[in-house]
């Protein structure tokens, strides 16, 4: 095996980091931000009168949670052009739910809600074990009430206790500290134009012997000097890749023009039509036989 090929193999099988540093969710007052998500309960619909989903909404500042059982999700959602609807988080929510969003032109992961989903599901599944069944309709309000009336580790009080009177205290003692910490955000970051590989989702590639990094090589198109820094990426055709990425999700490559070949599809003289490892057939391309290493 050539040293170039060995380098590429080492890169794509390099252990992916665990939980890397993420951007803080910034909130400025009690009514600043909510996050919403849908919990699928489809396997248990028969035991719960046909209800298949739980819509969960959390006030990010107070941590107060609302949850509503739903039988189905709508196919369309119409709003005005307000920014409360036309933003990245709302678009992602509707896209995940496969809901078409459109607006009338009149006078334009949510990480916190994902964490609370895990908490609610943990409480729910404990009760399932006690009950010996998966009936959750009557259970849901009790679990949400318990969550809202339990001391929260972050805000050091019950979500139900947060109000306009203690809002400023909470802002200063809990959320204000995030803005006071000075950080060197330019240390050890990638640069615009660097070639990188993207970490594969560990949930989908849980086996340690499978490649942990993309075979496709991506270019850093823009660096956002947030804390921590985030990166906008583009493929080698210049097409932007949706979303921003953290440093822990990227690995700089040693060779930006070396790819692994899965198989030779066709031969024509000194030309080979090859399928690249880890890429679908639309990326198949002709190469010179002499280009193989």
UniProtKB/TrEMBL annotation:
Which terms does the record give in the GO molecular function aspect?
nucleic acid binding
User: What are the Chromo domain coordinates in residue numbering?
Assistant: 259-293
A biological-process GO annotation: DNA integration
Q: Which residues form a coiled coil?
A: none
Domain of life where this protein originates:
Eukaryota
Q: Which organism is it from?
A: Exocentrus adspersus
InterPro entries given in the database record:
Chromo-like_dom_sf, Chromo/chromo_shadow_dom, Integrase_cat-core, RNaseH-like_sf, RNaseH_sf
Q: What is this protein called?
A: Integrase catalytic domain-containing protein
Integrase catalytic domain sequence ranges: 1-167
One annotated Gene Ontology cellular component of this protein: chromosome
């Amino acid at each position: 095996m050539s040293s170039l090929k060995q380098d590429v193999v080492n890169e794509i099988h390099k252990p992916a980091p665990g939980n890397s540093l993420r951007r803080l969710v910034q909130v400025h007052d009690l009514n600043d931000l909510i996050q919403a998500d849908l919990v699928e309960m489809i396997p248990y619909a028969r035991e719960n009168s046909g209800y298949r989903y739980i819509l969960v909404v959390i006030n990010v500042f107070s941590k107060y949670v609302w949850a509503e059982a739903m039988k189905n999700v709508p196919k369309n959602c119409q709003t005005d052009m307000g920014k409360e609807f036309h933003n990245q988080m709302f678009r992602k929510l509707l896209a995940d739910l496969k809901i078409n969003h459109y607006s009338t032109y009149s006078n334009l992961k949510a990480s916190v809600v994902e964490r609370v989903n895990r908490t609610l599901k943990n409480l729910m599944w404990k009760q399932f074990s006690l009950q010996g069944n998966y009936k959750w309709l009557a259970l849901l309000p009790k679990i949400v009430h318990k969550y809202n009336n339990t001391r929260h580790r972050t805000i050091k009080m019950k979500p139900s206790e947060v109000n306009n009177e203690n809002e400023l205290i909470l802002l200063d003692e809990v959320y204000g500290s995030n803005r006071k910490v000075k950080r060197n955000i330019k240390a050890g970051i990638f640069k615009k134009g660097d070639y990188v590989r993207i970490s594969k989702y560990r949930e989908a590639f849980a086996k340690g012997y499978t490649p942990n990094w993309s075979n496709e090589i991506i270019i850093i198109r823009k660096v956002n000097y947030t804390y921590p820094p985030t990166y906008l990426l583009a493929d080698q055709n210049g097409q932007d890749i949706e979303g921003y990425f953290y440093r822990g999700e990227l690995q700089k490559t040693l060779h930006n023009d070396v790819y692994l070949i899965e198989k030779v599809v066709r031969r024509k003289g000194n030309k080979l039509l090859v399928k690249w490892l880890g890429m679908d057939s639309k990326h198949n391309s002709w190469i010179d036989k002499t280009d193989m290493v």
